[in-house]
Amino acid sequence: MGARGAMEAMAGKRERVFSGIQPSGELHIGNYLGAVQNWVQMQDQYECFFGIVDHHAITVPYEPAEMPARVFDMALTLLAAGLDPRKCTLFVQSDVPEHTELAWILNTVTPLGDLERMTQFKEKAGREASVPAGLLNYPVLQAADILLYRATLVPVGEDQVQHIELVREIARRWNARYGEYLPEPQVVVGPARRILGLDGKAKMSKSLGNTIGLLESPEEIWAKLKVAVTDPARVTRRDPGNPDICNVFTLHRYFSSPQDQAWSAHGCRTAAIGCLDCKRRLADNIVAALRPIRERALELRERPEEVRRMLAEGAERCRAIARETVAEVKRRMGLTGSFLPVAKPAAAIRT
Ligand code: AQP
């Protein structure tokens, strides 16, 4: 806990948490294990703000006509996964314009070199024929998301740790110039730091198509899992494998009982089971774990107005805080607009 966190805890005030997720596709088990499971736990203990960050999702090519449904589906899936609007604030980033206003301001204290060396920028820019400035400035908007609520804790997967370190640097630089006001947030990474995709190579990622979605049917999950990459040493069923380097076994660790994990590890090492047997057991366990989420999502889908109302209420709560932060930030920066409380003009007028 940081100094500010300790002070707030002493004052009986709960520490504030911010985290976001892009509506860039279906929420997958990587997002869930790496971040959202942590969010669900933290909402009982902290004052939590979770944003569906649509301004981030437009930094790569996307289909405008699909965006509203993506935002809605993301909200619905997050609620089904356990976010409770009575315990946390769930909202859509573009409903709170102060995110982009503060991002512009923070751009002015962010070193260009720091942005250029971000791993995610280099990876995503490498996939684009033409690189938009928004992709480079993505972490500055992320800094604005967090600092707008003056959050002190940010639960994310490992891929975002570098960005949160930069957020701390941005806060430090702004504070050094304009006075201590923006807390440096602490990153919170859960046990599932980085879930690999079903290709066994890259991070499980919405944009890479190597995912298992939280709302997928048992048939869809099996269709994807049965072709997932395993230990390449297992060319035929009789070849023994090494579960420690098999991505399918890694997923067993999160979804299967200790007995099933032992069965899978021993069966793999001795070639007593084939990869398909191991995957079938995993598929059954994933389907069972995701069933309650899928059922809640199906129920909620019948009440879309309820989801919209929760998001609207969330945005209203956010706007009140966001307005206050931006007003104070601008006041400290001398950005008073047309309100010029100066008795004497700064430059002497010679007659
Ligand atoms: N594979 C992963 N393992 C663990 N955590 C992960 N997260 C994402 N992928 C994994 C965490 O999920 C949260 C939300 O991620 P995001 O939507 O903001 O962006 P992302 O990290 O870029 O996620 P994707 O799925 O890879 O999306 P695209 O393909 O659109 O870029 C974050 O806390 C992230 O760490």
Task: Describe, in plain words, how this protein is organized in 3D.
There is one protein chain. This protein is mainly α. The protein folds into two domains: about 5-195 and about 305-330, Rossmann fold (3-Layer(aba) Sandwich); about 215-295, Tyrosyl-Transfer RNA Synthetase. The protein is about 55% helix and about 5% strand. The protein has 14 helices and five strands. The chain has helices at about 5-10, 30-40, 55, 65-80, 100-105, 110-115, 120-125, 135-150, 160-180, 220-225, 245-255, 260-270, 275-300, 305-335, and strands at about 15-20, 45-50, 90, 155, 185-190. A three-stranded parallel sheet has the order 1-2-3. Strands 4-5 form a two-stranded parallel sheet. β1 (about 15-20), α2 (about 30-40) and β2 form a beta-alpha-beta unit. α4 crosses α13, α5 (about 100-105) crosses α8 (about 135-150) and α5 runs parallel beside α14. The longest helix has 30 residues, at about 305-335. The radius of gyration is 23 Å and the shape is elongated. The termini are far apart. Bound molecules: adenosine-5'-tetraphosphate. Adenosine-5'-tetraphosphate (AQP) binds near residues 21, 30, 34, 156 and 160.
Number of distinct helices = 14
End-to-end Cα distance, whole Å, is 59 Å
Could you give a short account of the major beta sheet? Answer: 3 strands, parallel
CATH class of the largest domain: Alpha Beta
In terms of structural class, how would the helical and strand content be classed?
A: mainly alpha
Which H/E pattern describes the elements?
HEHEHHEHHHHEHEHHHHH
**How many β-strand stretches?**
5
Q: What is the CATH superfamily label of the largest domain?
A: HUPs
In percent, how helical is the residue content? 40-55%
List cofactors, ions and other ligands: adenosine-5'-tetraphosphate
Mean pLDDT: 93
Strand content: 5-15%
Shape label: elongated
Radius of gyration: 23 Å
CATH topology of the largest domain: Rossmann fold
